[in-house]
């Protein structure tokens, strides 16, 4: 990039006029908005809002995912130079993606956080804009699902995870990342018959009607088969995609709170996400990226790629309407 051109590509997170277009900025400088998108609370003309939810006080093991949104944004600066490989369209050039910033909440008021998350997402949905959320621990998905279910009714859910997060817990006020899916089913936010968990490799006594493909099945059947099964299960109904980064094997994502061996490889996750194109995805998230345990930064890189793939999944339907 010539010096003259470089002067016109400075801190696009603030100076960008057009919400569309790839970004040719130095990856090592500038404001680290997600994919160098514009930081804005103005949702006029926006197709999709990416927002951080830096909450990690619901973890059962290692904390640190409050730093996840920041790390994912930084890792994402490697990506916006060209359209993403394999999708056949240019989501950054064809659609307006905005970085809506992070949820502001009182870290000392844990009991009040779920309502804050729900309200934050509902505010974006009220503008008829979808969301991809950057966590944070997996609890954040429960209040997000509440906001989405209020708009769309019971949702199909595709969950990439090492854990089912279906531990029984009928105290709906408890804040625990291991019970979010159990509560989502019990509260009627999720349609279990239209929901699928991918990559499971820990025990669960009762899946509450949610279907699952454990990691070994994914390895043996292959990515294309898994994606086809996911499309079959969710059908044409409104679907939310939540990706716990520990769905990946620790070799590909060591920076997470509860790593479990035997998980998906990054190439498998990429192939499954891309082959799910066409599902009626209304929103999604990537959670449990924990930078304190990510010495090389590869978990944040994986999280950034997952988040971009979720953007592509969401925008695929807009492109093909």
From TrEMBL:
Single GO term (MF): metal ion binding
Keywords, A to Z, come to:
Hydrolase, Manganese, Metal-binding
Q: Which cofactor does it need?
A: Mn(2+)
One Pfam family for this entry, by name?
Arginase
Output the InterPro entries linked to this UniProt entry: Agmatinase-rel, Ureohydrolase, Ureohydrolase_dom_sf, Ureohydrolase_Mn_BS
Q: Name one GO biological process term.
A: putrescine biosynthetic process from arginine, via agmatine
Where on the tree of life does the source sit, at the highest rank?
Answer: Bacteria
What the entry lists under Gene3D superfamilies is as follows:
Ureohydrolase domain
Asked if the record carries the keyword Manganese, the reply is: yes
Cofactor binding, note field: Binds 2 manganese ions per subunit.
- Which positions does UniProt annotate for Mn(2+) binding? 138, 161, 163, 165, 244, 246
Q: Which family does it belong to?
A: Belongs to the arginase family. Agmatinase subfamily.
Q: Which NCBIfam families match?
A: agmatinase, PRK02190.1
Record's PANTHER family?
Answer: ARGINASE/AGMATINASE, GUANIDINO ACID HYDROLASE, MITOCHONDRIAL
- What name does this protein carry? Agmatinase
Q: Which organism is it from?
A: Thalassorhabdomicrobium marinisediminis
Query: Top-down, what is the taxonomic lineage of the species of origin?
Result: Bacteria, Pseudomonadati, Pseudomonadota, Alphaproteobacteria, Rhodobacterales
Gene behind this protein: speB
């Amino acid at each position: 990039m010539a010096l003259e051109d470089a002067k016109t590509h400075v801190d696009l997170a603030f100076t960008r006029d057009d919400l569309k277009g790839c970004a040719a900025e130095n990856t090592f400088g500038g404001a680290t908005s997600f994919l160098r998108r514009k930081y804005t609370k103005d949702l006029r003309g926006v197709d999709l809002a990416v927002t951080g939810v830096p909450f990690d006080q619901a973890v059962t093991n290692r904390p640190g995912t409050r730093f996840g949104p920041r790390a994912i944004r930084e890792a994402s600066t490697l990506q916006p130079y060209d359209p993403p490989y394999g999708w056949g369209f240019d989501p950054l050039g064809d659609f307006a993606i905005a970085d809506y910033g992070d949820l502001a909440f009182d870290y000392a008021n844990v009991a009040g956080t779920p309502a804050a998350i729900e309200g934050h997402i509902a505010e974006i949905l009220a503008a008829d804009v979808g969301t991809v959320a950057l966590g944070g621990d997996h609890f954040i998905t429960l209040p997000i699902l509440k906001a989405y279910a209020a708009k769309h009714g019971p949702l199909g859910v595709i969950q990439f995870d090492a854990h089912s997060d279906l531990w029984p817990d009928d105290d709906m006020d408890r804040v625990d990342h291991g019970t979010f899916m159990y509560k989502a089913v019990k509260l009627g936010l999720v349609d279990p018959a239209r929901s699928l968990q991918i990559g499971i490799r820990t025990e669960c006594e009762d899946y509450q009607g949610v279907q699952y493909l454990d990691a070994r099945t994914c390895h043996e059947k292959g990515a294309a088969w898994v994606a086809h099964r996911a499309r079959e299960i969710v059908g044409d109904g409104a679907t939310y995609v939540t990706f716990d980064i520990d769905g990946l094997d620790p070799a590909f994502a060591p920076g997470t709170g509860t790593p479990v061996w035997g998980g998906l490889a990054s190439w498998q996750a990429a192939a499954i996400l891309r082959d799910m194109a066409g599902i009626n995805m209304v929103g999604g998230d990537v959670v449990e990226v924990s930078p304190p345990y990510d010495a090389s930064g590869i978990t944040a890189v994986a999280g950034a790629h997952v988040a971009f793939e979720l953007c592509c999944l969401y925008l695929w339907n807009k492109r093909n309407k």
